[in-house]
Every structure is written in structure tokens, then in C-alpha cells.
């Protein structure tokens, strides 16, 4: 994915050696107040801070609004697939090169989408940390100068102490929803559904400090931190939803099957063996991988679809999962937006078959929003990378909350599924930092 942003003028670029660890650098930028809106996105070996708004695309249930530099905002109605509405909005970009960052809500996949569905920005300034070097690229010389001054200052963002959130509340209503889902599965309505529960945080949260504390304790496939339009979120995604390079190679990484992790070598080894031999967990994972294959067959060349690393145990903070990678090459005429549409929402956060599972989720739960949606970065060259949003904290209008779910199949029991949500919430709940 390219790093340059250009309008009619050449971009300003600054490359420096920087001693700070990337996590500390991202926290310093996010907490600096230099940019009202920003997105931090971590991929293996690469951290990017996207600050300020050069352009913006916002998708609501009834309309898509695009605001490009030098032009008045344009709001248009849309029908059909949300991914197509986003693709058309970015096809109109009057920029020769751009990268966009933002989020897509779970409700994009609903039969009748509602509320805010997506919010993406092309930043004024990008700061990328890779291999001990920091590259600052942008369209505004003042931004570049301010970032350079910030990088030159000693110290970093002050990180507060966590106040752990109790994950054990709310068990009774969740168990009841699980029992209802199991009954619907036995009635033949669907094979699998992910039932989640929301956990409110009893105090305002320092989201940047929570990102630092949580990232220090987690081993995510992707991590993110964002503040767009006053909505904040941070998380440690256990799996890649869709990654597409500029040559059209697609990869998704379904994880399904869960046990606790981090309880000591002997306990971790025992729970790993239990995970790898439990028929319910193996079935849950196998049907998820099969679904991911079927989804890629819709948009990829048939003989290119492959499964690798089948049922490998992935350690993700307080839990361990069974994981596999499914990949393929886009068919002629298909784009990264098609791949995202085929895989969204993640099978491991929705269910099987997806339409029936999504319908069940809308009946069993309140609006999810960003939970089990995606944080996305997309580029003019056709590349796209998206993290499935799990193990995350969300904050808006002075309130913060967590959310976690479990995959319900015919063999599920309410007590075990509730326990699984506690294990997943423990990836972030102990690391929540109050705002002072």
C-alpha cells in the first residue's frame, strides 16, 4: 500500500530515525491534540497514524456523503450493497493517490441497514513507523512541522494506571439468549450463531492509555485506535477479516474455538489439548473455514482458493483459538470491495448460514455498531486491509463499553458460552484506564 498523499501539489515528506517504540510513538501522536480526528492501525511490522481530514466518506442507511478537497460536500441516496456505495464514492476521488482509514459497522450486513454504517477519512498527514524509521507524509506543511517538533521532544504520552472492569456481571440474561439460540438451532433455523453481550464501563475512559496498556498485554493480528467524529474505539483484533494486495491476492483468517490462555504453562498446555480435541470446538472451526472458502469462491478464481495452517492454535491475549488461513486471487473484474463484501461480516462473528444468523442477531441483541464490524484501510492502488473488530473498547458521549460473544452451535451450553465471553472480555477489561 503506498504512503503518499497528493493533491495538486507534491506531498511533503520527512524521514527520521526515531528511538521511541512504535506503540509509544502512536500514543504520543494520538494524545497530542494536534489532530481532532485520527486512526492508528497496526499491521505486522508496520504502524500508521493517520491524522486530520483531507477527505471524508460517511455512509448512513439512507445516504452516502463524500467531501473531497476543493469541492463542496455531496450527499446522495444509495441502494444495493453498502460496499458498492463505498466503492462508487471513492471512485470519484479527485486525487491521483490516496489512502483511507476508518470503520464499517456490523449493520452493513443487515437485511435492513440502520444508523451510521461506515466512516472513512483520507488523512492530511500520515506517520508510518517501520524498521526503526519514521516517515511523515502529508499535504499541509504546518502539520509536518508540528509533527516534527513533537517527535523531537523528550518523553511521551503519560499513561495512566488501569482500573479493571468486572466481567462477571450480566450472566443470567446472556445465558437465556444462548438457550434461545440453541433451541432455534435444534429447530433447524441455522447451524451456528454468535451471541454477544455488552458490558458497560462504570466510568469515563482514557482511550489512548487503554490502548497502550492493552497492547502491552495482547498479541493481536491487528491493533487499532481511532477517534472519528467524537466516536472513539481501541482494540486488539484476533483475526484478519480481509487483506487484499494491489495484485488482487486475498487472505482471510477465520478463528473459531476458544479456551483461556495465560494461566501458567501447565494450565495453558492442558487447555490447549482440550481445545484441539474438543469435538464441539473442532466442528465450530471446520464449518467456519468451509464458509470462508465458499465466500472466496464467489469472488476469486476457483483453482486459486487454498487453506493453509489448518486448525493452528493462535494465542491472543487472554485466550487461545483454533485458526486457519484461507486465500485466493480475485477473478477478473473483481475488486477489493467485492472481497470485503463477500467476507463481511466475519463468519466467526456472525454465524452459518450468514443471512439467517444475522437475522437472529438482530432479534436477540441490540444494535452492535462497530463490534464485529471492521476497521479498514484502503488505497487508490486497489489494496485493502481490514481487522475484525473484537476485543475492543468503545466510547462516545462520555460513556464507554466492552462487548464479547461466543459461537453457539447445537452442542453449546449456556454456562460454557458465558464463561467464554468472560475469557474474551479479559483480553481488555483488566487494562481499562479511567479518565482523570
TrEMBL record:
Q: Does the keyword Aminoacyl-tRNA synthetase apply?
A: no
Chorismate-utilising enzyme C-terminal domain segment(s): 173-424
Is-annotated flag, keyword DNA damage?
A: no
Among SUPFAM superfamilies, the record links this protein to: ADC synthase (SSF56322)
Cofactor(s) the record lists: Mg(2+)
Q: What Gene Ontology molecular function terms does this protein carry?
A: isochorismate pyruvate lyase activity; isochorismate synthase activity; metal ion binding; oxo-acid-lyase activity
Q: One GO BP annotation here?
A: L-tryptophan biosynthetic process
So what EC number does this one have? 4.2.99.21, 5.4.4.2
The alphabetized UniProt keywords are:
Isomerase, Lyase, Magnesium, Metal-binding
Can you tell which superkingdom this protein's organism belongs to?
A: Bacteria
Task: Name the InterPro entries on file.
Answer: ADC_synthase, Anth_synth_I-like, Chorismate_C, Salicylate_synthase
Could you tell me which PANTHER family the record lists for this protein?
Answer: AMINOBENZOATE/ANTHRANILATE SYNTHASE, ISOCHORISMATE SYNTHASE MENF
Record-given protein name: Salicylate synthetase
Q: Where does this protein come from, organism-wise?
A: Actinomadura coerulea
Amino acid at each position: 500500500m503506498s504512503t503518499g498523499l497528493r493533491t495538486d501539489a507534491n506531498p511533503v515528506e520527512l524521514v527520521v530515525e526515531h528511538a521511541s517504540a512504535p506503540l509509544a510513538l502512536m500514543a504520543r501522536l494520538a494524545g497530542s491534540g494536534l489532530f481532532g480526528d485520527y486512526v492508528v492501525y497496526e499491521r505486522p511490522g508496520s504502524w500508521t497514524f493517520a491524522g486530520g481530514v483531507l477527505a471524508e466518506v460517511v455512509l448512513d442507511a439512507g445516504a452516502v456523503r463524500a467531501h473531497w478537497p476543493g469541492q463542496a460536500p455531496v450527499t446522495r441516496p444509495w441502494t444495493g450493497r453498502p460496499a458498492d456505495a463505498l466503492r462508487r464514492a471513492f471512485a470519484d476521488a479527485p486525487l491521483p493517490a490516496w489512502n483511507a482509514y476508518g470503520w464499517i459497522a456490523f449493520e452493513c450486513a443487515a437485511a435492513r441497514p440502520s444508523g451510521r454504517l461506515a466512516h472513512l477519512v483520507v488523512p492530511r498527514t500520515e506517520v508510518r513507523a517501520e524498521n526503526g524509521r519514521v516517515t511523515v507524509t502529508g499535504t499541509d506543511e504546518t502539520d509536518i512541522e508540528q509533527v516534527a517538533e513533537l517527535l523531537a521532544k523528550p518523553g511521551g504520552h503519560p499513561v495512566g494506571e488501569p482500573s479493571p472492569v468486572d466481567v462477571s456481571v450480566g450472566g443470567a440474561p446472556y445465558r437465556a439468549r444462548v438457550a434461545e439460540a440453541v433451541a432455534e438451532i435444534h429447530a433447524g433455523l441455522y447451524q451456528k450463531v454468535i451471541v454477544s453481550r455488552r458490558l458497560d464501563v462504570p466510568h469515563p475512559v482514557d482511550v489512548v492509555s487503554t490502548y497502550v496498556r492493552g497492547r502491552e498485554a495482547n498479541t493481536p493480528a491487528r491493533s487499532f485506535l481511532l477517534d472519528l467524529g467524537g466516536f472513539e474505539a481501541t482494540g486488539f483484533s484476533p483475526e484478519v477479516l480481509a487483506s487484499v494486495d494491489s495484485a488482487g491476492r486475498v487472505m482471510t483468517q477465520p478463528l473459531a474455538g476458544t479456551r483461556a490462555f495465560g494461566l501458567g504453562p501447565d494450565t495453558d498446555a492442558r487447555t490447549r489439548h482440550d481445545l484441539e480435541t474438543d469435538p464441539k470446538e473442532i466442528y465450530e472451526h471446520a464449518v467456519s473455514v468451509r464458509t470462508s472458502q465458499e465466500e472466496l469462491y464467489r469472488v476469486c478464481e476457483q483453482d486459486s482458493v487454498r487453506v493453509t495452517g489448518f486448525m493452528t492454535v493462535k494465542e491472543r491475549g487472554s485466550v487461545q483459538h483454533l485458526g486457519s488461513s484461507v486465500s485466493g486471487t480475485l477473478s477478473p473484474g473483481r475488486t477489493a470491495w467485492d472481497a470485503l463484501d463477500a467476507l463481511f461480516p466475519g463468519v466467526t462473528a456472525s454465524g452459518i448460514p450468514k443471512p439467517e444468523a444475522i437475522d437472529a442477531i438482530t432479534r436477540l441483541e441490540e444494535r452492535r455498531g462497530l463490534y464485529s464490524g471492521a476497521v479498514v484501510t484502503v488505497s487508490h492502488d486497489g489494496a485493502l486491509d481490514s481487522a475484525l473488530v473484537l476485543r475492543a473498547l468503545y466510547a462516545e458521549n462520555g460513556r464507554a463499553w466492552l462487548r464479547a460473544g461466543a459461537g453457539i452451535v447445537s452442542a453449546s451450553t449456556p454456562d460454557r458460552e458465558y464463561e467464554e465471553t468472560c475469557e474474551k472480555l479479559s483480553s481488555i477489561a483488566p487494562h481499562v484506564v479511567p479518565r482523570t
